[in-house]
TrEMBL record:
Keywords: Cell cycle, Cell division, Cytoplasm, Septation. It comes from Microvirgula aerodenitrificans. GO terms for biological process: division septum assembly; FtsZ-dependent cytokinesis; septin ring assembly. It is found in: Cytoplasm. GO terms for cellular component: cell division site; cell septum; cytosol. This is Cell division protein ZapA. Activator of cell division through the inhibition of FtsZ GTPase activity, therefore promoting FtsZ assembly into bundles of protofilaments necessary for the formation of the division Z ring. It is recruited early at mid-cell but it is not essential for cell division. It comes from the Bacteria. InterPro entries: Cell_div_ZapA-like, Cell_div_ZapA-like_sf, Cell_div_ZapA_N. Homodimer. Interacts with FtsZ.
């Protein structure tokens, strides 16, 4: 089980405290920096001043960007399945080779 740490993050000038597994601390901080950047861009380039609305717009923009990346680079499930089958065959051969020794 991983240790949980408390992380303080600043988003658009407001301080938030989150708990997360210690091994996810750096990625949470990186995500907060990206979100803060997106929120500041929206605030600076629009007439929106409400922090909650800015946060929602930033989340929507980031989610949309993520969805577009998935469409542009979809997972090749057939290739993944072939790789899994190859790994399984290799493992089965190794197991059989070990069994043949005894």
């Amino acid at each position: 089980m991983s240790d949980t740490v408390t992380v303080g993050l600043d988003l658009l000038g407001r301080r938030f405290t989150f708990s997360c597994p210690s091994e996810e601390r750096d990625s949470l901080m990186a995500a907060a920096r990206i979100l803060d950047e997106k929120m500041r861009t929206i605030r600076d380039n629009s007439r929106v001043v409400d922090g909650e609305r800015i946060a929602i717009l930033a989340a929507l923009n980031l989610t949309h960007d993520l969805m577009l990346k998935r469409v542009e680079n979809p997972l090749d499930m057939e290739a993944i399945q072939r790789k899994i089958e190859s790994i399984d065959e290799t493992a089965q051969r190794a197991i059989q080779a070990q069994a043949d020794l005894f």
